[in-house]
Amino acid sequence: MGIFHCLYSYLLASSMFFIAVSATDLYSEALLSLKSEIIDEYDSLSDWSLPSGVIPSGKISVCSWSGVTCDTNSTTVVALDLSAKSLGGAISGEQFRVFTKLVDLNLSYNSFSGQLRLGIFNLINLRSLDISRNNFSGQFPSGISSLRNLVVLDAFSNSFSGSLPADISELEKLKTLNFAGSYFKGPIPPEYGSFKSLEFLHLAGNFLSGNIPPELGKLKTVTHMEIGYNSYQGGIPWHLGNMSELQYLDIAGANLSGSIPKELSNLTKLESLFLFRNRLTGDIPWEFSRISSLTSLDLSDNLITGSIPESFSELKNLKLLSLMYNDMSGTVPERIAELPSLETLLIWSNSFYGTLPQSLGRNSKLKWVDVSTNNFMGAIPPDICAKGELYKLILFSNNFSGGLSPSLPSCSSLVRLRLEDNSFSGEIPLKFSHLPDITYVDLSRNNFSGGIPTDLSQAIKLQYFNISDNQELGGTIPSKTWTLPILQNFSASSCGISGNLPPFQGCDSFIVIELTMNRLSGEVPVSISNCHSLNNIALANNNLSGHIPDELASLPALTSIDLSHNSFTGPIPTKFSHSSSLQLLNVSFNDISGSIPPENLFRTMGRSAFTGNPKLCGAPLQSCSGSMALFGSKGTGKLIWAVLLSVGVVIFTALSILAVLYLRRGSKGQWKMVAYSGLPQFTANDVLRSFSSAESMDAVPSVPSSVCKAVLPTGITVSVKRIEWEAKRMKNMLEFINRIGNARHKNLTRLLGVCYNKHLAYLLYDYLPNGSLADERIGIRKDWGTKYRIVIGIARGLCFLHHDCSPAIPHGDLRSSNIVFDETMEPHLAEFGIKYLLELNKDSFSTKASKSETGEFSGSVEEELYMDIYSFGEILLEILSNRRWTNAGASIQNKPMEVLFTELLKENEIGSNSSIQAEIKLVLEVALLCTRSTRTQRPSMEEALKLLSGLKPQRK
Questions:
Q1: Do domains 162-328 and 772-844+858-950 have the same CATH topology?
Q2: Rounded Cα gap, residues 184 and 207, in angstroms
Q3: Which of 108, 158, 296, 744 could bond 83 through an S-S bridge, CB–CB 3.0 to 4.6 Å?
Q4: Catalytic residue, candidates 421, 469, 562, 813
Q5: For residue 575, what pLDDT is reported?
Q6: Does domain 25-50+58-147 have CATH number 3.80.10.10?
Q7: If pLDDT is split at 50, 70 and 90, which confidence band does 175 have?
Q8: Where is the Protein kinase domain (predicted)?
């Protein structure tokens, strides 16, 4: 018996050991199997490997692996957290059957894809399942009702499609349900009104449709519900007023119609109500005053009528009141100013009238007030900045009058002040030395007097300043104005300003200087050469005199110069001929003499740019003769030199033509050359000789629009684009090429010239060797400053094509590979107009082409402009997301703005820097506007650029 007893004990111990080892193998085997399916680019799971030592009996080896949590005895895995490890791939889910005791599974913030597998639903003890911020796709599988213990399901920001799963409503313990930010479609299941314990419901940013089910009103435990950014039919069910515990309700951007149910006033615990961007009509229910806990009310961008209810004065906790962009009218109730918590009042673009409550700002810490584009009159409330926290005051396009509020001159918190288009008068009392954070000031179109404040130069953060159209302002330009370190726009036209232009010390940041229709005198200081970023200078209708400084012609970014109606003398500086950016030079009605430079650039400006100068000649004015020679009337020697030079040019051109004829005799016709303005001249022969005998021009790959690089004998490196055409198309195509060649902007690749015969054309562009936006070596992943500069550069280039070229030039193929960089990493748009040019070579396009010659938009051109804007929006998304959102314009339209914004802050590793956060949000907003599915709802490029630059249009 003793022997049998010993044998039995041995077998029992062996079996227990075997079971322990088997258990160990099951967990490690399952996790290693999972690891084999995962794409782990950064080796985040490097410690997932079997140990070399002996595992203590009854223990499991995986408890020390990253993301794995075991019970206190280290015998069972109870939690698996793989969040934010940059993991990807598709998961089969087969491994999860081993983890019978798993309570928490977190796969969030990764790039997992494919369908969500049913194996996860074997985790019957699971309490929390977080698969948010991945790319799971397809139908959400049925069977989740088997997870009876589930409390949290977070599937936010994936790519699920099909219907919402109805069986999830059977989970009686579920408290959090987040299906936001996918592509679910169809109606919200009425079963979602039967949850027993649900507290958080988030379905926003999908493709949900149908009516909002009234059954949701039965959710007595829900405190937070977001179901907006979908496209429902009908209105808001009054039954939602029965959700007695609701604190947060967001149904914004959801296509809702009808009136706002007064029953929502029964939500006495509600703190935030967001119903903006719908089609709601009727008055705001006065019963809302019963929601005493309300802190944020946003009903903006609807069709709401009526006035602000007087009863709103009872909302003592209200911080945000946004009613902008509706059809409301009436006056603002005086007692609104008594709300002690009010911080933000946004009621712009309505038809309100009367005066603002004169105690506004006295009782609360106002931060942002925007009442623009209404019919208000009277004075600014005197205490509007009494609490010292006001940072945005926007009152433009009303009938305000009188002087500025006494609390404004020293409102040190002020960042943005827009008072344009009113009837304010008196001196400008602003003390810029007391406004350390002011960035934007627009006081234009008023009746101010007393001159520009002399301490303007102390506003060191100022970026935009516009005082134009204050006819009685008078005074002079403060002497240190140009020293402001980041000021970009200075506009003071039609202000009666006198005196001289102060020296341009500093001035490096200035982009626009507008001083037309004043009484300025003296010369333009040669220190204008310090304004390296200057794009537009307008000094017309003054009393300026002297020569036009050569330094003005040397500014690298200058596109528009208006010096008309002054007393300038002397010739047009020849340096203007070499400007690569200049589009307009208006010197009309001065005393300019000599000859207009012969480049095509000046011919395209038209007679109006040069008329009113009796001593000036040359195209587009009358031809020069006699003393009106190329160099004016400064002596016979110069005249003789000019004649000799002209003869030399003629001889050289003739020899070049003969050489080309000799070299290319018997080819496809006589080669001709057009070189565009402001660039070193070269000939067709130069281009032909730039190819070796083994690789002649005709040997360039014969694919239409192919590109190669060439070095001309002059030493210039160019990109050469080969285009075939038919002889009968040549005229129309060449005219369009000339339009491309005359399009000069710092953010466009320059077309240097075109070499052509009856069958072929070679377009010669600047060669930019620093890669394109599609090039992985462009290091912008974490540098937001560089990204923002690229965004603005692209916008400026495209805006120029659409709005400054007449007729407009559609880009036609705007994508990241067609955005190239120069040596300073400034972006340039390449390939613009090429798609349209190739269309001109087709028979089907002949009618459209003839229309475009008249300067009118054909349907085709207009469609291309809209497509450009859409492509621009997609490029913004690509830049914002570090190329993760490629071709994503349509797919993210219905995702909540806050969801996308949060993702981008993480993607760009942005911390608490509020100014950068604001820029990212602004770029995202513009991207979403540009990629709207309805083309007429997209902004123009001019509007998009204003938005990106902070110069928002009237509707903001």
A1: no
A2: 6
A3: 108
A4: 813
A5: 86
A6: yes
A7: very high
A8: 657-951
